[in-house]
Amino acid sequence: MRRILRQYVRPYVGTLAIAIVLMMISAAMTGAMAKLMEPIIDKIFTQQRRDMLFPVAGMVLLVFVVRGLATYGHTVMMNRMAQRCIADMQRDMFAHLVYADLAFFHGQQSGMLLSRFVSDVNHIRAALNQSLTGLGKNVFTLLFLVGVMVYQDWKMTLVSIFAFPAAAYFVARLGKKLRKVSTSTQVETGQLTSMLGQAFQGSKHVKSYGMEEFEKGRINSIIQRILALMNRTYRVSATATPISESLSGLAIVTIIVYGGMQVMAGQSTTGQLFSFIAAFLLAYEPMKRLAQLNNVMQMGLASADRMFQMLDSPPAIVDKPDAAPLSVAQPEMVFDDVRFTYADGTEALKGVSFTVPAGKTAALVGESGSGKSTILNLIPRFYDVTGGAICIDGIDIRDVTLQSLRKNMALVSQEVAIFNDTVRDNIAYGTEGATEDEIIAAAKSAAAHEFILELPQGYDTIVGENGVKLSGGQRQRISIARAMLRNAPLLLLDEATSALDTQSERLVQSALDRLQEGRTTVVVAHRLSTIMDADVIYVLSEGRIVESGRHEELLAAGGVYGRLYGNLLRESA
């Protein structure tokens, strides 16, 4: 809570101060209402003084009007501030995630991350709304009403006030239980979000394998666990009510007995007793709201714990303090005894050394798990090497800024990223200020212009989530057009044609050939037919380079490459 106040509430301290003043005014008016019970009973009903009727009635009306206006003012201001705080939290979370390492995303379920933004934030929003709006007002109201009680009879106040600390003790104990239950609930909610996303994205496979009942059972199981946790939350929350009601009832009985004896003995008036009882009853409401507020706050703080855990996990791959921008025209790339081990201990690369001359194409081939994709992920520093170095034009890529490094690269992968936006914006993604002519020229070079014009709105067509309205070949050609438009000197191709049919592969490969012209290119491919013209082919096996050369040389050598090529011919026969 201290961190939330310091980091997110402090920027709006001016608004908070004004709202607190309005809360104090509203609370003071509630205390005034209790105090007015004394002249109403004693002056009007008991003594029947006509001269006091309208003045007292006017005071009552004024109190209600002032309290209403003050309540409106502080409620609007505090809610507005709470919403700004939540917006700031969401902004910080996304800013943190968008710069997070690739390893972080591989170690997280997307549903868990989405749960931070939706479910957790809703709990924090409720806690902020009610704590900022309710905490101050209820505390001030309680103080003013206790002040009225002390003014009327300080002895009776001491006798009756035992209910407040006793209720606070029980509420605090319940709050600890609520926080634990809330944490479990948020974890299960994240699991539900993740599994729903998987089921929806894989709906084609769910149906083709007849797994509807299985998926329904998995989702129902999580729903039941969340239901049990929510029921437990409500049971724990509701426990505060009978406790506070019983303590308050006991306190009221004490007031009636003690106060009644005071009135009968002539040591107090009926109006003073009624004013005291009114103050106590009015104080009971903010006390009860504070108890309920504690429940909401504990749930919000459990969500805040999860949010801050994520925000406090710094990215491992960051710029060095003295990192310089990288600026090259045709970079030569050198891998110098590069080693890499994943977090789980898997050794993916075991001393890999090779060179890609400027403006040339190097292809990486090998069986699955040989380290090809790992090499490609190390070049843009999605991961950092654990040994050796990768240099571009003699500069270690760890010595340059990430932004400048990646600005000099374009990536075309089999996992095409197409956003639910127009074709135009998908092509221009990553290239600020691209003109219409440049976008069309890139589409033509990628053999995409013709099919784009056939779409319902041409370049303005919304392609749907993950480009669902396009074929695989069309999505890949938009990805190539994006790389064409970026016009980066270094090109990374990751099995860009592996998932395409023969006709689509021919169109895409033709576009890729044009894209590679004059660029330093690293290609990872399963289909060896797509890299036969590469300037140099590096063959990997178990994290090491075992062969290198051109296509004809490697075939003539009759080694690993020859075996892979023979397997390919047999598969296509």
Description:
By secondary structure, the protein is of the alpha/beta class. It has 2 domains: about 1-310, ABC transporter transmembrane region fold; about 330-410 and about 530-573, 3-Layer(aba) Sandwich (Rossmann fold). The protein has helices at about 1-10, 15-45, 55-100, 100-105, 110-150, 155-160, 165-200, 205-210, 210-265, 270-310, 370-380, 400-405, 425, 435-445, 450-455, 470-485, 500-515, 550-555, 560-570, and strands spanning about 335-340, 345-355, 360-365, 385-390, 395, 410-415, 490-495, 520-525, 535-540, 545-550. The strands form 2 sheets. The protein has a 6-stranded mixed β-sheet with strand order 6-7-8-3-9-10, with helices on both faces. A 4-stranded antiparallel β-sheet has the order 2-1-4-5, covered by helices on one side. Strand 1 and strand 2 form a beta hairpin. The longest helix is centred in the middle third of the chain and has 53 residues, at about 210-265. The chain starts with a helix and ends with a helix.
Secondary-structure element string: HHHHHHHHHHEEEHEEHEHHHHEHEEEHH
Number of helices: 19
Average residue-wise pLDDT: 81
Count the strands? 10
What is the total number of structural domains?
2
**CATH topology-level fold name of the largest domain:** ABC transporter transmembrane region fold
Distance between the termini: 68 Å
- Report the principal-axis shape: elongated
What Rg, in angstroms, do the CA atoms define?
Answer: 35 Å
Give, in spatial order, the strands making up the sheet with the most strands. Answer: 6-7-8-3-9-10
**What is the strand content?**
5-15%
- Indicate the CATH class of the largest domain: Mainly Alpha
Full CATH superfamily name of the largest domain: ABC transporter type 1, transmembrane domain
Biggest sheet details: 6 strands, mixed
Percent helix: 55-70%
CATH architecture of the largest domain: Up-down Bundle
The secondary structure category is alpha/beta
